[in-house]
Amino acid sequence: xxxxxxxxxxxxxxxxxxxxxxxxxxxxxxGDKTFETLLLEVLPKKLVYLLELEVPMNNxxxxxxxxxxxxxxxTIRCVSKSNLRRLNMSHNSFLFxxxxxxxxxxxxxxxxxxxxxxxxxxxSSMTNPNPDASYPDQRALPSNVKFALATNQxxxxxxxxxxxxxxxxxxxxxxxxxxxKCTGATGTPFH
Length: 191
Hints:
Layout lengths: L1 H9 L5 H4 L2 E3 L7 H15 L5 E3 L9 H9 L13 E3 L13 H13 L28 H12 L1 H4 L15 H9 L8
Parallel strand pairs: 1-2, 2-3
Helix pairs in contact: 1-3, 4-5, 5-6, 6-8
């Protein structure tokens, strides 16, 4: 089961995790609690160099518990050292791009604040060569989620000094230019 895989990754004591760039766990009926363990315990400690996490077609119903844990647990601060760029949660039980669900919207914003390098929530470029056709449709995301993705892509981790390296903060006056370059003429984040 997927729980066995997550437990094995959690107890991993080999350099395997340092070389893994993409992890795909699809059609495994992964629930909220297992996803939370993967995202908040396994990723920041064992899979620090992971760039893409593919978890489509599972049973993830909500991100609210993850958001609550991020807010309450000071040890979760190490997630900002994660290199995760893409998080594909498409075709799960919850559809966070529905504009009426304020709690899920707040949860995804909390997740994007903690994992401040994630700039894509749909399919990866490897599994979907046409990012405009990704599911969930990036264009259908609420504007504040799009903005969070854009600032993450523009290098928010450099701005807030949480990239795990030396302080290379971008001055506030340069941020409009950075965001303009990031979003291009269309006003939507590049993939």
